[in-house]
Amino acid sequence: MEKLLIVDDSPEIHQQLKWGLKKDYRLLQAKDVGEALRLFRSHRPKVVTLDLGLPPDADGATEGLRGLKEILSEAPATKVIVLSGNEERENALKAVALGAYDFYSKPIELAELKTILQRAFHLAALEEENRGLLQATQAEQRSMSGIFGQCAKMEEVFTTIRKVASVDVPVLILGESGTGKELVARALHDNSLRKDGPFVPINCGAIPENLLESELFGHEKGAFTGAQSLVKGKVEYAQGGTLFLDEIGEMPAALQVKLLRFLQERVIQRVGGREDIEVDVRVVAATNIDIQQAIGGGRFREDLFYRIGVISMELPPLRERDEDIFLLAHLFLHRYSGEFGKKVRGIGQGAREALRSYAWPGNVRELENKIKRAVVMADQPFLEPGDLGFVDTAPVEEPAGDAQAGMALDYEGLTLKEARQRLEKELLLVALEKEDGNIVRSAETLGVSRPTLYDLMKKHGVQSG
Ligand SMILES: Nc1ncnc2c1ncn2[C@@H]1O[C@H](COP(=O)(O)OP(=O)(O)OP(=O)(O)O)[C@@H](O)[C@H]1O
Ligand SMILES: [Mg+2]
Fold it and tell me: Which of 120, 126, 213, 349 could be a cystine partner for 79, CB 3.0 to 4.6 Å?
């Protein structure tokens, strides 16, 4: 249910509106500007009805106009409908000039007011959808090799990738689990001169110590029991390309020495072999452990660190990437609703609050998994906290995730022109549907003239009614 803030000093008006509107909206009621602003700040309703004559200036309009200015300065997209007495018409017009969405003269005729409210909420939803599209387009422009991020720290990461990708030096990527280290390693490869060569990842933490050496360097036939033929190692397979040493912090001491030798001399020997094999690979490594601490504790060789960490970059944890959480959430939402063929269009208000306040110990991977799960579980067009495996902790009693609160993101992968066309058609359809095919009102909703609306309908092959 959408939240509606009603600001009025008259108990009768509150009574009347409560009775008339409580089935349609979650009502927030205030009798003066102070209370109104408190409620506004904690609930962020998209629509507000505002009486201009409020105490201490119940006969003038100073308080009402002050409230209006405050609300619009904090959230300019809010639709404020001024409720005024007939004799206050001039002040009502003044309010509209200040940015009020509309005004309505008392006495209140409920059916009329309901229509105005519906239009206001509708417009607010359209505008929000529009902002979602814009954000998606901008995100696309600012992503790099599938790495999404707009925060300052990710900008730095992108800059570093651009600078070092084509230089043939080792890079060490640091960051908590799930922050995108492998993605960055691939981006380094894809943006290097070696991009047509192989990208070969090996997880040094996942392979038992006794097998890791031959995994890395290969072995000759008969090198050990069971070595029935010559097998090349990952290093050799990476010839001409990039070797990605994941979880290098877990590499056993004996192998650290061998790796160091390879980095210094660019040659390897297979297990059981005597011949030096020259390999031309670029090494990118990653770890989620505190490498300085590992060096201090003698678990990681300092000389290897100096070789491998000529350039190191640190990926920020998701909890420090506030503005990226929604961006990534929408990215995954779109990805998985497409993959699973589900019509999930956005993230509801309650779910957004849950996403924002969660600490994300598993970072982007955890976010991706939660959204994936939510897309599977969702049975409404906008995700709710429960879909994400969160309890609804929002301060409202109703289940959050109202159908119009989320942003829709059906636009990724389209060119700007295609996206514009699609948005145009969608808005047209939504307006016509909402207004029951009424051309005059649909045109008004969309802010276009009637002839323009007809043109649009013709262009998109849409019939009214
Ligand atoms: N900035 C990002 N944009 C888009 N997807 C991302 C981003 N960062 C991470 N991901 C996705 O999150 C998941 C985890 O990323 P990745 O495997 O690169 O993390 P990692 O740091 O290597 O984690 P670990 O230390 O656990 O191996 C992947 O599915 C990846 O595609
Ligand atoms: Mg990884």
Answer: 120
Identity of the residue numbered 77: A
What domains are defined for the chain?
A: 3-129 (3.40.50.2300), 152-315 (3.40.50.300), 416-459 (1.10.10)
Distances (CA, A) of 419 to 133, 137, 340: 8, 9, 22
Token pair in block for residue 342: 């589900």
Residue 149, ligand 1, Cβ within 6 A: yes
Report whether residue 78 contacts ligand 1, using a CB cutoff of 6 Å: no
Pocket perturbation via mutation, ligand 1, pick of 155, 160, 176, 179 by most ligand atoms within 8 A of CB: 179
Residue whose CA lies nearest to ligand 1 atom number 15: 180
Ligand 1 neighbourhood includes 364 CB (under 6 angstroms)? yes
Whole-Å CA distances, 57 to 33, 103, 128: 11, 19, 35
| Closest to 400 in 3D by CA, of 345, 347, 350, 344 | 350
Query: CB within 5 A of ion ligand 2: which residues?
Result: 182
Q: Is the CB of 178 under 6 A from ligand 1?
A: yes
Q: Residue 172: pLDDT above 80? A: yes
CA distances from 224 to 200, 214, 218, 227, 235 (A): 25, 10, 12, 5, 20
Q: What is the pLDDT of residue 392?
A: 54
User: For residue 58, how far is the Cα from the chain centroid?
Assistant: 44
pLDDT at 402: 37
pLDDT recorded at residue 230:
93
Ligand 2 midpoint to CA 366 (Å)? 13
Tell me the percentage of the chain whose pLDDT exceeds 70.
92
Question: Residue 393 has what pLDDT?
Answer: 47
Predicted pLDDT at 146: 87
How far out from the chain centre does Cα 15 lie? 40
User: pLDDT tens for residues 53-105?
Assistant: 999 988 889 999 999 999 999 999 999 999 987 677 889 889 999 999 999 98
Dihedral angle, C-alpha 163, 164, 168, 170, nearest 10 °: 170
β-strands 218-219, 26-30 pairing? unpaired
Residue to probe by mutation, ligand 1, list 161, 174, 183, 288, most atoms within 8 Å of CB: 183
pLDDT in the model for residue 330: 84
Strand partners for 28: 5
